[in-house]
Amino acid sequence: MAKRRRKQQTEFRRRTAPGAAPGTIVADPEAPKSALRLLAFGPDKVEERHLTSVDEIKPYLGDWPVLWVNIDGLGDLGVINALGEMFKLHRLALEDVVNVHQRAKVEPYPDNVYIVARMAEISQSRVGGDQLSMFVGKNFVITFQEHAGDCFDSVRDQVRNARGRVRSSGPDFLAYLLLDAVVDHYFPLLEQFGEIIEDLEDRVVENPHRLLIARVHETKHDLLVLRRSIWPLREAVHALYREPLSLVAEETRLHLRDTYDHTVQIIDLLETYRETASSLLDIYLSSLSNRMNEIMKVLTIIATIFIPLSWVAGVWGMNFQGGPEAPLNMPELRWALGYPLALTVMLLIVIAEVYFFWRKGWLKAMTPSGGEKKLSNGLPDSTEKK
Questions:
Q1: Is 207 exposed, middle or buried (0-12, 13-18, 19+ CB in 10 A)?
Q2: What residue ranges in 124-251 does DSSP mark as E strands?
Q3: Paired residues of 63 in beta bridges
Q4: pLDDT tens digit string along 26-74?
């Protein structure tokens, strides 16, 4: 099942036929039907409603400072084409909307700016995410999502309750809030991965098992998926606040710079976690090697103890009885105390060997002994004089 899920996540299919005209829009037949939601607001008023058709947007055009139209589901080409005609969205950008394999990017057009980002989430214990396509115009923001459900509840709450400066700002500030929500949503995911990696590290050290290797590889793959999503997003945010775009105000650029800093922090955490996950394999092999060394050490000590005992038992087990006719044979076979004497010799040999092993330090535990001075981290003090 794990291999099948991974194949579905990394699978790439482009529905446009090779050689098709630029701007050809072909929807995914399995994509959900489009659901429209409108959020119109200004400094003193706000209105939110669900729409059944694109024509219901027309009464709001020109009467509201900012229109936010959100579309959940990309299975209705009629809705996508109608929105493109109403807001003068370029056909090349609409083609990228329905082809949801796009990397995060910013593309300026004469009447609007097209922005692509990826919203990361954990679904069925694996990392995935939907493509967010956003058009920012003079007085509108249009967002296309693959499925219903997003991380924009906090943004909607700010608009409804007039928190912050979103109601008094333009569509560029709303676009900033949406991008910032997408970026900040990576932090809780990274916190979960931090806990997963810490747990894996403890389990690999304490009880290395081959099933842990599969979990380590899944974690590395998930981190790679996050990395492929956030690296282009950093470039896109950087382009928004660096390039001279007329639709982005200077005040919004300052806020975008903060979002850019968040992307850098996320990338730093991702690289740290990826390096730690990669080192878990080395830790696993080292733990296995240590366990094997301990097992071999115990078996070697046991075998070493029994080698001289086997020699003693073999010598007295040859049964060459002595007598006048065989003076070189074993006269002790006729001793009354021969058997207790042999056992006593074996016991003395065992005691001598155990004492020798103990003096050499071969029987000491792996943890520091009680007589060693320890530092605050539990390690022995290497600077203590012996």
A1: exposed
A2: 126-136, 140-145
A3: none
A4: 878 888 899 999 999 999 999 999 999 999 999 999 889 999 999 999 9
Query: How big is the chain, counted in residues?
Result: 386
φ and ψ of 259, to 5 deg: -65, -40
Asked if 333 contacts 370 with a C-beta cutoff of 8 angstroms, the reply is no
Mind giving me the DSSP string for 184-217? HTHHHHHHHHHHHHHHHHHHHHHS--HHHHHHHH
- The helix/strand/coil state of 158 is helix
* Residues 203, 180: Cα–Cα separation, whole Å: 36
Percent of the chain topping pLDDT 70:
86
pLDDT tens for 210-222 read: 788 888 888 888 8
* 169 has a pLDDT exceeding 90: yes
Q: Quick one: which of 295, 125, 136, 157 has its CA closest to 222?
A: 125
pLDDT at residue 282 tops 70: yes
Q: Which CATH number fits domain 27-285: 3.30.70.3280, 1.10.3720.10, 3.30.460.20, 3.40.630.190?
A: 3.30.460.20
Question: Is the pLDDT score of 8 beyond 60?
Answer: no
Rounded CA-CA distance 295/238 in Å is 56
For 187-196, the CB contacts below 8 A with 24+ separation are 187/262, 187/266, 189/120, 189/121, 189/122, 189/127, 189/226, 190/226, 190/266, 190/269, 190/270, 190/273, 192/122, 193/219, 193/222, 193/223, 193/226, 193/273, 194/269, 194/273
Residue type, 367: T
Angle at 338 between CA 337 and CA 340, to 5 degrees: 70
Q: What is the pTM of this model?
A: 0.74
Q: Residue 22's beta-bridge partner residues? A: none
* Degrees, nearest 5: CA angle 191-193-197: 120
